[in-house]
Amino acid sequence: MFVSIDQNKCIGCNACIRVCPVLEANEAVLSEDGTHSIVHINQDKCISCGECVKSCVHGARTYTDDTERFFAAVRGRADITVIVAPAFRITEPDADAMLAYLRELGVKLIYDVSLGADICTYMHIKALKEKKVRKLISQPCAALTEYVLKHRHDLIPSLSPIHSPISCTAVYLRKYMGIKGDIACISPCIAKRFEFEETGLVQYNVTYKRFVEHMNKNYNFDRNAHFKFDNPDAFCGKIYPKPGGLKECLLHAVPGLDVRNCEGVGHVYKELDHYYNAKEGERPVVYDVLSCANGCISGPGTNFDEKDIFRYFSKAGRIGTEAFTEREKQTTGWPKNDKQFQMFEKKLRLEDFIRKYEPKDVKPKMVTEQDIKGAYALLMKQTYTEQHFDCRACGYDSCAIMAEAIAKGINVPQNCHQYSVKQMEMEHQHAIAANQEILNRNSLIVDTVGNITEDIEKICENTELIGKKSNDNAAGMAGVREELNLLSGKCAEINQAVSGIIKVNDAYHKMAESIRTITEQTHILSINASVEASRAGEAGKTFAVVAGEIRSLAANTKATTAVVEENDVLVKAETDRVLTIASEIEQTVKDLANVMESVETNVADTTATGNHINDVAQDIRASTEELYTIANQA
Questions:
Q1: Could you tell me if residue 60 is inside a domain?
Q2: Do both 321 and 463 map to the same domain?
Q3: Farthest-apart Cα atoms in the chain, separation
Q4: Is 80 inside a domain boundary?
Q5: Could you tell me if 334 and 327 are in contact, meaning their C-beta atoms sit under 8 angstroms apart?
Q6: Domain assignment of residue 290, given as a range
Q7: 83 and 216 inside one domain
Q8: Are 477 and 603 in contact (CB under 8 A)?
Q9: Among 151, 240, 157, 145, which residue's Cα sits nearest to residue 198?
Q10: pLDDT digits (tens, 9 = 90+) for 492-537
Q11: 382 with 347, same domain?
C-alpha cells in the first residue's frame, strides 16, 4: 500500500476527490453513523500522485515508504548504495549534513541523481537524433507513467522509451560501476515505488519527509558537516526538479527543439487528452510533463511549504546557473564537443537505458445511458438546470461526473450538496406535516382525556359504593356469625337432651328386663301351683283358680314386655338418628362458620382492594387533569 486513509480522521470534505486525476481511485461511502461520507482508496486504480495527501488538511490521508526498512538494513550493515534526487538539496537546509551522517552510519556510496538526469537528457537527444523516436511524452514523473499504464493504454506508444533520471542512475551504477548490492533512493515521490517494482532497479523508496523525520528523531548529527557525492560531476540535470527542467536542459543542448511543458494535476491530465486528440503535426517533439504543479520540489514526499516557494526557486535558479556555467567552461561547442556528453557517447549504450512498458489490466467500470438516468433519479435531479448545477461540492467538476460516479457505485447521493438541500427541504415538509399530525393527535388526546376523566369519576363512585357495601356486608357477616354460634349452642343442647333420653331409655330397658324376668318366674310358679292344686284335689281348686289368674297375668305381662322391647329398639333407632342429624348439623355449622370466616376475610380484602382502587383512581384523575392542562397548552 502506498497511499492510505485513517477513517477516524476522514470527515468527507471531498478534497481528495477534487484533486484526484483518476475518477475511480476514490470510493465514497457513508460513515457508520450516517453523518458524513468516508472516501476510501481503490489501490488497484490509484497512481500514488499524492495530491490527496497534500490536500488533506485533516490528516486522514498519508502514505507508506521504505524509510524504516532502509535504516534497519543500514544498521544491519547491509550492502546498500544510496542515490539522492536533486530536489533534496533544494528543499532541505540540512541535506548535506544528513547525507554526511549516512556515511558515518556505514553507507559507502552516495550518488547524485543529477548525473542520471544528465544521462537522461543525453539519451533523449541521441534517440531523437538517431530517429529511434519521433515525438514523445517524457516519463520522469512516475505518477504520470503509472496513469498511462493503468488508465491510458492508448498513450503508451507515445511514452518516452528512455528511463527516468533515477533509473538511469541505477542502470549506470549496476552496468557501468558494477554495483551488486541494493540501491536506495531518497526521493520526493510516492509513486516512484511503482517504477522501482516494475524495473527492479531500485529496492528502497525513501521519501525526503520520512528520511528527515527519522534523522532528526534518532540521530544527533553535525548540521555544519560538509558533504560531496561520489559520482562524477553532474551539470544541467540539477535543475530537473524545476517545472520544465527537462525542457530547459534539452533546449540548452538543442536550441529550437520543439518542447512543451505542463505541470499540475489541474492541467496535465486534461492536456494528455488534448495531446492524444491533436494531429501528429500539432504535437511537440517532446512533451515534458510533471504531475506536481511546482515540479519535484513540491512532491508529496517532500516537506514543501508554499510560503517558501520563492526561496526554493531562487536556490534552484542559483544551482542551475552554476551548473550551466560549469558546463560552458568544459565545452567548446555544446553538445558536440561537451566533455560529459563525449564521455557518455564513448562509454554508455542507448539500449541499456531503454525501458519497456507493460500495460496494467485495470478495467474501468462501464455504465450505460440508462444507468446515468438512474443516477440522476437517485440524486433527485430531473431538470436541465438541476443536472448542470455543477457546484463541485461533491469534488467532481460537474453533476454529470457525479452521476457517472453514482452509476459506477463509487459515490453516494448524500455526498451531493443539492441532494442534501432537497433532503432537508423534504425533512422540513415532513416536520411540518408531523407537527400538524401532532396537533391533531393532541386534540384527540384532549377529547380522550375528557372521556377518561368521566370514566374515572364513575370508578371513584363505584369504588366508594364497593367500600360501603363491603362495610355493610362485614356487619351482616358478623350477625350471621352470631346466629351460627346460637345454632351451634342449640345443637349442643339437642345432643345433651338426646343423651338424657338415652339414659332414661337405658333405665327403662333395665326395668323391662326385670319385669320380663319376674314374668318368667311368675309363669313358672303358676305352672307349679297348678300342679300342686291338682294334687290337692278339691282343696286345691281355689288355689288352682288363683294360679290360673297368675298365669294369665304372667302371659299378659310377657306380651307387654315384648311390646316394651320393641318400642325400646325403635326409641334407640330414633335417638341414634337424632344424634346423627345433630352431629351433621353441628358439622355443617362448623363448615359454615369456616366459610363465614373466609367470607369475612374476603370482604376485608375486598374493602382494602376497593380502597386501593379508589386511591389509584384518584392518582389517575390527578394525572389526567395535568395531561389535560398540558394538552390545552400545546
A1: no
A2: no
A3: 217
A4: yes
A5: yes
A6: 65-353
A7: yes
A8: yes
A9: 145
A10: 666 676 576 667 566 656 765 665 665 666 555 555 555 545 555 5
A11: no
Any residues with CB less than 8 A from the CB of 113 and at least 6 apart, and which?
83, 84, 85, 86, 165, 166, 169, 185, 237
- Please report the DSSP string for 588-623 in residue order: HHHHHHHHHHHHHHHHHHHHHHHHHHHHHHHHHHHH
pTM of the model: 0.70
Q: Of 405, 373, 395, nearest to 24 (Cα)?
A: 405
Hey, what amino acid is at 160?
Answer: S
C-alpha to C-alpha distance for 154 and 275, rounded to whole angstroms: 11
Amino acid at 630: I
**Integer Cα distance of 339 and 288 in angstroms:** 26
Query: What phi, psi does 134 have (nearest 5°)?
Result: -105, -60
* Residue 434 CB contacts under 8 Å (≥ 6 apart), including other chains: none
pLDDT digit string (tens) for 426-456?
888 888 988 788 788 767 766 765 776 676 5
Claim to verify: residue 81 and residue 206 sit in the same structural domain:
yes
Cell numbers that stand for 137 in this block: 511524452
Between the CA of residue 558 and those of 336, 510, 531, 551, 564, what are the distances in Å? 183, 15, 21, 10, 10
Q: Are residues 439 and 373 in the same domain?
A: no
Residue type present at position 510? K
Structural domain count of the chain: 3
Pairs from 398-402 (Cβ < 8 Å, separation ≥ 24): 400/372, 401/23, 402/375
Query: Residue 187 is inside which H or E element, if any?
Result: strand 182-187
Q: Is the peptide bond before 413 cis (omega within 30 degrees of 0)?
A: no
Task: List all residues 6 or more positions away from 463 whose beta carbon is below 8 Å from its beta carbon.
Answer: 610, 611, 613, 614, 617
For residues 168 and 577, what is the distance between their CA atoms, to the nearest angstrom? 136
| DSSP H or E run through 540 | none
Residue 263 lies in a domain: yes
